[in-house]
Structures are given as C-alpha cells and as structure tokens.
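Cross-posted from the bioinformatics board.
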Amino acid sequence: MNELRRILSDTRRKLILLALPFLCLGLFLLEQMGGNIRGGWELMQWVGQTYRERVESWRGLEPEEILAQAQATRYDGLGLYEQAEHVRDYEAYLKTVQEQAARMSRSSLFGGDKNSFVYRNIQKTAADFKSLEGIRAEFGSDRAVEQWIAFQTADWFHLLAVILFVLAFLEDRRRGLLALVRSTPGGRKRVTLSRLAVLFGVSFVSALLFCGLPLAASFAINGGLSDLGRSIQSLQSFKTCTLHLTVGGWILLYFAVKVVCGFFVGVFFWFILSFLEHIQLAWLVIIGILGAEYMARRFIAPQMALGFLRYLNIFSYISPAELLSRYQNMNFFGWPVGSFTLMAWLLLVLFVLLTAGLMLIQIRRHPFGNRDVLGRLIRGVNRFFDFFRRRLPIGLTEAYKLLFLGGTLIFLLIGVYVGWGLKLSGSDYNPYSEPDAMVMAQYVKEAKGPITQETLDYLERAQAQLDARPTISNQFRGGLNMLKQEVAERQQKAAEGGYEPWLLDQVTINNYYGEKVWYVSRWNALLVMFFAILCAAPVFAFEEQGGTARLLRSMSRGRSRVFLHKYLVVLLEALVLWAVVFGREWLEIREALGREFLAAPAQNAAVFEALPVRISLGGALLLLNLIRLAGLLVTVLVTAWLSRQVNTWEKAVMPAAALLLMPAALLYFDQDWARVLSLLPFTGGAEAMAGFGSAGLYGFLLLPWLALGVFLTLRCRRSWVKTA
Amino acid sequence: MELKLENVTKRYGQKEALSAFSHTFREGIYGILGANGAGKSTLMNLITDNVKRDGGSIEYNGTDILKLGDSFRDILGYMPQQQGLYEGMTAEGFLAYLARLKRIPGRKIPREITRVLRLTNLADVRHDKISSFSGGMKQRVLLAQAMLGDPQVLILDEPTAGLDPKERVRLRNYIFELAQNRIVLLATHIVSDIEAIAGEILLLKQGKLIKAASPKELMTSLPADVKPLMGSYFTLEDVYLHYLGEDPDE
Ligand SMILES: Nc1ncnc2c1ncn2[C@@H]1O[C@H](COP(=O)(O)OP(=O)(O)O)[C@@H](O)[C@H]1O
Ligand SMILES: [Mg+2]
C-alpha cells in the first residue's frame, strides 16, 4: 500500500491516470458518433434507437422473414441484414466444416499425404467443431457487444496504465532510492511482492474501467442487456468461436482474461526494463518492442509461413479478444495447435519464469548485465551529438530546448500528423440533386476564364447545338440558361465595380470558403490553435520551473537575444502547423482552380464579391492566409505571455485554453455570439474575409486582437529583459 | 575595480528583505554570512539584476549596473542558489550554450569548457546527461558555468549547499585560487566555508548589515563578557552566534 501511495503521490501521474478513463470513454463515444463532433451525438442516438426498434420488431421471426424485411435498409450501416444472414447460415456452416473434413479424408489428393499440415488442420478443426453441434445462433441485439469488442483502443489504454506503473517502479532508481529500499532487511522481497500486487490491482481496475465503461455505454446506446443469455455464436464475429458460452459468460471470461493478460504484460515489461539502468532508454525500449510486435501482427497474414509470429506476439495478450473469439490453429512443425491453448500455456510458463526472474533480480543482486556497457554506449552517442550541440548558435539551442527539453516536439509531431490528415474543403456546394446546376458545372469547365467575346461565342455555339437537337433533355437547356445568367451577372457586376469579368468555378471556391463549409475551416483552425498553444506553452514556464531563468538573465546574451529567439522558435512552430494545414490548402486550391485563375479579379468569386479592395483572386487568398497567420500569431503571443507568468506548462495551457479555445469551440458548435470573443474566424480565415466586406466591419476586430498580442509581447519582453 | 552599493533596499510587500545596504567591494573574497532568510540571496539577486531594486544604487567602477546592462553582465559570473540546470543536456552541451550566452567567441569555447570542467573535476563526465549527476556534481556544474569567461565579479549563492565535506574543502580551495584579481561574493550560513578564505566577512541579519570586517577583527570585536563556546579561544562560530544568534527563522 505504501508503494501505491508513493506512486500516486506524483500529481502529474495521478492526473494522467484520472484522465485516461474519461479519454477512453470519450474516444469510444466519438467512434460511435462516426468521428463527427458536430451532429454525431444525434447520429449515434438515432442509430441506437433505430437498431433497438428493428431488433424488437423482428424478434422471433424466421431468419428468412427478417432478411426480407431488412432488404430495404440493407446498406444503412446497422448490419441487421448480415446479422440475419449469419443466423440463417450458422447451422449450414457447421455442417460444411464436417463435410469438408470427410471429403478430404476420402479424397485421393490427400490420401497419400495425410501428414500435411493442411490435412491435419482440417481434421482437427472438424473434431473441435463437433462439440458445437446443437448450438444454435439466435437473432437478437448484438450491436452493443459487437461495437464494444471492435473498440481496440481500450486495449491501448489498458497497456498505457500498466506501463505507467511499471515505469513508476523503476523510478526509485533514478531518485537514488533503490539503495535505501534495498538495504532494509526484508524490504527488497516485500517491495517486489507488493509491486506485483499493485500491478495486478492496476490491471484489474484498468480492465474494469477501460472495458467496463465502453461496454456500459454501448449497452446504454444500443440496448441488448436482455439478450445476454444467447449462445456467443449468435454474434457474427464469433462464428468460429468454439467456446461453449453465453454472451454474458463470454464477457465475464474476457474480463478475467484481460485482467490476467494486463498483469502479465506488466510483468513482461518490468522484467525487461529492470535490465536498464538508464530510465531514458526505457521508453525507447518499450516503443521498440511494441513497434516490432505490432508490425508482425499487422503485416503477417495467418496463412504465411511465419504465421505463428502473428499470434506468438505480445499483442495477443494486449488484445486478447481475437484469441477468444476466433478459431485459429497455428502451424507448429506440421501439427496444428489451437492458438488459444498454446498462448494460454505460454502465458503460464512465461509468467512463472518472469516472476521468478524478477524476484531474483530485485532481491539477489544489483541489476546485472549492465556493467556500463550501455553507459559507455550512451556516452559515445552523447559525445557524437555534443560535437554538434557545442556548435549550435543560440537560436538553434533555443529550438532544441523547447522541442526536446520543453517536450513540445511530441505535440508538434502529433499536430503535424493530425493536420496532415485534415480535410480542407467541404462538398456542401456540389449540385448533387439539381440537374440544371450539374450541367452548368460541365459548361463552366469548358468556358471558364476571362469573359470575352469568345465566351459569348461559346454560349451561342452551345445554344445552337441544343437547338439542333430538340429532343435533348431539358436539363441541358436549364444548365445553359443558368450559365448565361451567371455570365450576364458577372459582366454587370464587373462593369459596376470596374474590374475585368471572369467566369470562375464557383463550386470549387465555395467548397473551400463558402459559408456552408465554414465548419471545416473552423475545425481545422481550432486544431491548429490547440497545437500551437501546446507548443508555445512551456516557452518561459520551463525556465522558471527548472530555475534556469535567473541564470540566463545574468548573462549578456541571456536577455534580449534569448527572448527574441524564444519568440522566433514558437512562431516557427506555429508556422509549421499553419503550413501543414493552410499551406497545404493553398497548394490544393491552386491545383483545383488552375494556376492561371489566381490572376482573376477576386470579386468574380461569389465569396469575395464584397471585398472593398480591388485585388486578384490570388491576392485575396494571400490576404486570407495572412489573416490566418495573424490570428495564429496572436494565439502564440498570448500563450507565450501566459507562459511567462507561470512556472509550469499546465498553468500556461489552461488559461490559454479558457481564453482562446473555449470561445473558439463555442463558435464551432454554432454559438454565433461567441464570434466577437474568438480568434477562430481569423485563424479560420474565410469567415473573417467575409466580415471585411460591405456586410460589416466585423473583420476589423482583428486589430484589437493584434494590439493585445503586441501589448502582451512588450510586457513579456519587459519582464524578461528589464528587471522583473 | 570596485563594486559600490549604497543604501540598496528591497521590499517584498511590507517586509524589507534588504534595508539600506551599503558597502564597497574591491578585489578579494567577501563572505556574506547570515541565517536563512537574512537577505543574502536578495542581495545577490539585486547585483545580478534579477529582482527590482526599491532604492539605492549599485555602481560598478562608478556607473550604475542598470546603465551598464549587458556590459556589466559580460564580466559577471553568477551561481544561483536554486539548482537551475537543463537536466536533459550533457554537461558540455550546457556549458557550451551558456558560454555562447556569455559572448565568449565560438573558437574559444571548447578550450574554455575544458578549463572549467577540469577546475571543477568534471572532465570525465562531460558527455553525461546532467540528469544522471548527483547533487554535488550538479553544484559543480553550476560553479563551472559561473567561471566561464573568467568573470571579474563572481557571485556565488551558497555554493557549498549539498556538497560532502571533501567536495566542500576542494571547492573552497578552488575559490581561493580563483579570487586573484577579482571580486568574489560568497553567501553562506556555514562559517567554515569562509573563515579561512574570506578577506572580509559581512554579517547580515534580517536584511540589515550588522558588521563588516576581516575575520580577525571580528574575533577581537567581541565584548569582554562573551565566553568562548569551547576551549579558551574564540572562533568565528562565536562571532556568528554573538551577532546573528537566536535565529528567528531557523
Ligand atoms: N519572491 C519573494 N517574495 C516574497 N518574499 C521574499 C521573496 N524572496 C525572498 N523573500 C523574503 O525575503 C527575505 C530574505 O530572503 P533571502 O534573500 O532569500 O534570504 P537568504 O538568501 O539569506 O536565505 C526572507 O524573509 C524571504 O522570505
Ligand atoms: Mg538564499
């Protein structure tokens, strides 16, 4: 218990552990919401509701009847059709397995080679499936369990919790406590035993939380608690499962297995890491092992020669659902062995060995095998890098400090990864259901460009073509008329505004910047801001936290020089984040429109019609991106100032989130009143551009924001460069 | 070379952490002796311009250090009381960075680092991460950085905190060797750190300068009715207890 108390006394660790269950549940719900934060909740409820209603109304029907009824809604993603198919076919499937085996044993093809793995496997499968005879698949509410079992992220959370504790065990070494703990009589054995107990408890609680919470949520959404008495084979994913269990029984078994496996995985890593003196290496080793094993799991197909590596894998214990739900034999020197059986035995044997080994290491001697071979290696590596680090100019050292020592590299990488995957445009303006508009879009493709006599000629030619074929569908005439109207409108507006008229692909431009797709740029901007804040937050705080601020400030270049470079680095980080999202957008839109169209006067695009300055489309996009950068700049400047006021990263992130992200999130969720409080329209861009137009002066709200940013920066500079 | 403080005052709220401190420092070692909370760090923070002065002047060779700014920091070496290091850096990386901040020319940096590492006996571990160092080693890294670039004014705030007796003696000897031709201010609450090496000792109590004199003078300054702690002759401990005793904070 002392051990547990010691581990939990670390506030940061406690916070992380507390946050994990919420995060896990949140991710499960997000998945149920189809990954859509906006409107996803309703979608999820609709799916659950519909699923429940349909299952209730079809309960007790014959599979064929259900299939007939489900036919109409076959592709709505609820999977009821497939479910009924499975129920109908299960008995026949069992028969097939037996027949296949019988046919094979008769077949002359295998008659001669009864020692082949394939033959043996089929016979073993048939023998194992014999026991399933008489088990019936029953139609019922499966979705809750199916969705829950498919949520493999929970396994990662379980793993993370266990690893956090294992690392905490190793921590005393770094703190030099090991000698103290080890020197007390009986202390070593007792500590090791109590750590094993802690590990088991952690695995138990983790299973309860990370499996239990999503399961409960899944039942709450999809229903099905009353259907737990059916055979587990009633569920599609358990078609090949050979366990004689009810759905409820299987869930209990899974839970127990999860607890044991989590415990085992913890012991496994603890054992390996106890050879490492250098705690920094621990994460590297963990990630290395997990990476290699994950690759094996991911890229090795079961039927390959190395197929056993797929199952003989730490991930079989991290994600034991597959072992428990699918029938699978491994090729063990020509003999088929049930993967579940094998892994269960392996777990037992390894567990005994590892525990014994751990006890030995912890009790008998100082962690062995590390007679500083590793230390020398690390020193060599450091010496190599020192050669370069010694030559780093101040700016690069500031970057190194913020990225590596301040730890923002990880946020930057995640931000880049997330940003790279973001969708940059919507499709809300595509004319799916308006035939005329679809035709017009085709015409625009051919006629777009500056509106000249040529364009008008084109219109006439097109009209003549249509007139020559009176039978042609009406939508062509409609489309052409729309185009004519558009051309006329552009000409008129251009004449009024005194600029050159162009015919542009309005649909594409609208899909990037139109009001209907603002939710896209808002979401993207929200994420960019979020990561920019995370990256900027430690910039001054970690100097204060480590007590280095005083030191730096006592040196001639430690004041304005360091200050300047700190700002440059955080701005650069923000620029990287901007580039992966909005820089990418710039390239994308240029590609989509065609480069020459950037020369068109911006007002020809409907979204930029109200712009008070006469610029080209390219210029408007440039302005748009400058506004975005300005918004991001303010975000970073405010965060950096906050960072100067506090001494930990969290203390800077929290007010920044409250001040900048909260209003942004409100706006994203359509609370339009939050617009005046939020930077989001600027970091998002399109919205602010619209606000610069005749519609209103809203866009100029950027100026006070910029003023605030500059003011805070001057304050911050004063407090760093002059005396605090 | 002269560092002259006149009526220097620092307040935290109502409390005067340093009250009208006046003293002139010339070449040599000055021991700033006082209990915890006496105002030693405050004094050093004022000289390194890390806290705002509420009154008085600090002049180096006749010019206020605030006016000198960076050119004063150029000749300043400072070892803070709080262990402020980048744990993730190697000793060499750390020193190289600070050497740059001290405007030491790039080509001189390797030699300079080697010099201070030798001086503080850290040459063997120059490529090790600071996070792997013991408290005493970290203390020596801080001392090493303070000596980078051969500063004229060396401000050491409790440099021996956390050192074992052997390291303590060694450090004292380094400092003694260093002190030629420069001003060294060494704050401590441990008498033995300075009694053998300080040319002058300043006794600080609750923000006030009680007495400033050479160790010998201090001992003879004791009134006749004071009895030695042990034996028959006075030590600096007796001086400390007489002037600074009945510690309010400790
Ligand atoms: N940042 C601060 N805020 C408020 N009071 C402070 C601060 N720093 C120091 N003090 C107070 O000033 C007095 C002198 O402190 P300090 O100079 O650190 O003493 P010493 O270094 O001699 O132990 C103490 O009473 C301390 O509580
Ligand atoms: Mg102090």
